[in-house]
Amino acid sequence: MNISPLQQPETAVDRLDIAPPPGSFWKGLLRGIRRLCPRCGESHLFSRYVTVVPECPHCGLETDAYRADDAPPYFTIFVVGHIVVPGMLLLEQNVHPPSWVHMVTWVPVTLLLTLALLPPIKGAVIGAQWALRMKS
Predict the structure, then answer these.
(1) In three state form, how does the secondary structure of 10-25 look?
(2) Is 110 helix (H, G, I), strand (E, B) or coil?
(3) How would DSSP label each residue in 27-47?
(4) Which of 56, 58, 68 is nearest to 120 (CA)?
(5) Nearest to 88 by CA among 100, 78, 98, 102
(6) Which end of the chain is more exposed for a tag (fewer CB within 10 A), N or C?
(7) CB atoms within 10 A of CB 122
(8) What is the pLDDT of residue 73?
(9) Would you say 74 and 121 are in contact if contact means Cβ atoms under 8 Å apart?
(10) Taking a C-beta distance cutoff of 8 angstroms, is the pair 46, 123 a contact?
(11) How many angstroms separate the CA atoms of 68 and 83, rounded?
């Protein structure tokens, strides 16, 4: 059997990366939102606030191969902006509070929403990358 260098025999690991199992996109996305390993859903995806563990201790998935980079902050800004801006506009149109009320209200809300949503959104991005086989 002659095998050219471009046609290496397929290994078990290669077969796992060919096509995602049915329904894995939503599984990976939801497990990522819960900040769990997208493959097994058993162990934590982050060792700190948004520091990805290098490898899942339960199933061995190399999670640091999935680079989320700038997508999670952009998605977080998008979501927080769509919550805060309508709230600000509704408050201004209905109550007409002084400017200090807006500052005291919306700065902490924006900060807390951003800090609360960034880890689940980063987990979701990593889960989607796992399901779509988008390794770096």
Answers:
(1) CCHHHHHHHCCCCCHH
(2) helix
(3) HHHHHHHTTB-TTTS-SBSBS
(4) 68
(5) 102
(6) N
(7) 25
(8) 97
(9) no
(10) yes
(11) 23
Q: Calculate the dihedral angle through the C-alpha atoms of 43, 28, 31, 35, rounding to the nearest 10 degrees.
A: 70
Question: Tokens at residue 107, please?
Answer: 């700065």
Report whether 117 contacts 80 (CB < 8 A).
yes
Residue 56 · residue 63 · CB < 8 Å: yes
Amino acid identity, position 100:
W
The amino acid at residue 39 is: R
Phi, psi angle pair for 36, to nearest 5°: -115, 165
> Tokens for 25?
């996109």
**Residues in Cβ contact with 106 at an 8 Å cutoff, skipping those fewer than 6 apart:** 84, 87, 88
pLDDT in tens, the chain (136 residues): 555 555 554 444 444 444 567 778 999 999 999 999 999 999 999 999 999 999 999 999 999 899 998 999 999 999 999 999 999 999 999 999 999 999 999 999 999 999 999 999 999 999 999 999 888 7
